[in-house]
Structures are given as structure tokens and as C-alpha cells.
Amino acid sequence: MPIRVILQGISQASLLVDNDEKYVHCGRGVLVYVAFLKPDKDTGGITDEDVARAVHTLLETNIFTHFNPEKMVARAQSLAECPKVDIMIVPQASLGGKINKKGHSVQFHHLVSKDIGEALYERFCHHFRVARGINEEVVDANGVSLNAAEEGLCTTESNKPEKWVKYDGRVVSGTFGNRQGLFIESDGPFTHTFDL
Fold it and tell me: 121 is in which domain, residue-wise?
């Protein structure tokens, strides 16, 4: 299973995207940590179809019950059923770590190379945005509206927006290879790990 993800339910989140001062924000929804692992020798590399299938699975699987704070539901819902919740995607190479045989350190030999990982990450984010109907011509590389500064969805030198962020179907993402300074608020540990 070459695509490893952790999904965490969030009330809102802020993510550092430029290693310096630019934060992007999202409201209620899901935080998706993702890493791309080297596939078995018999299966070949990760294809764009594999990435698209993984995104489809994440969107269609009934996972969370907390998406709508106005009316909690008893049954799990999929992201496809809740198109207005936000999705924040964070590249997370540490998901590919493995403790060495002596148990003294962590090794990352199972990750794809950085250039392949970056290309797969960009495709992963792209497939999420396309599936959610986001016009990629009106968002930047992190999925933030080009008018985000006026909307309060992109700030500098602050990890928190000035007001509570209302969810609105955004798909924002971190920058591959950068430090991912992350601040989240959550109603609970609604967290799931999957290998896709």
C-alpha cells in the first residue's frame, strides 16, 4: 500500500506554507496528512490512477460524524456527502518512518524520492480540488483563493485568523518540502490511519 494517510477531524486549522510568515486557514472539516511510500517491487510505481483512486476512496468512505455542528448525525458521513466542509492537506514524510532493527533510530528508506513525492503530492491535491469542483485558476499553489487576504483566509506573522473561519468547501494544502507549522482546534481525536 504505497499511499499512507492520517485523517483528523478539525474545527479549524492554520498552516504555515512558506517557512516564514504566510499561514493559510480553513474551517470545520478534515486534516489529511499524506506520505508516498515505495511500492513493492512486484507492483511498480505509484501512478496518477493510484492517486486518483486514493482520493476517490477518501471522499466516498463514510468516516466522520462531526461535520455539521448544527446537527450531529448518528451515522458516519463521507466527505462527498458534506461538500461544504474544508479539507487541509499536509505532506508528512514522517508517516514513512520505520524503527531500525536495533531500535535506536528511525529510518525513512520506505519513502519515494523527494522529486517523485512532490509530483505525487501535487497530483493528490489536484485530484481533491477537481473532485470538490474547485477552479484551480482562481487559487494559488496552496489552494487559497487569490482574494484570500481580503477574506481573512491567508495571514502573515500570525497562526490564527482574526475571526472564526467558516467552512466553505475549501481544499488548502501545505508546501511540499517546507516546515509545516500547524495549529489546529478539534472537538476530539477523530483520527483515522489508512494505507491506500
Answer: 3-195
Distance (Å, whole) CA 133 – CA 129? 6
State residue 113's pLDDT score.
92
Task: Give the CATH number of the domain where residue 145 resides.
Answer: 3.50.80.10
Model pTM?
0.90
Average pLDDT estimate for 99-125: 92
Residue 30, H or E segment: strand 29-36
Q: How far apart are the first and last CA of the chain?
A: 5
pLDDT at 155: 62
Averaged pLDDT of the chain = 86
Count of other CB atoms within 10 angstroms of residue 30: 24
Q: How many domains does the chain have?
A: 1
- The phi, psi pair for 156, rounded to 5°, reads -120, 150
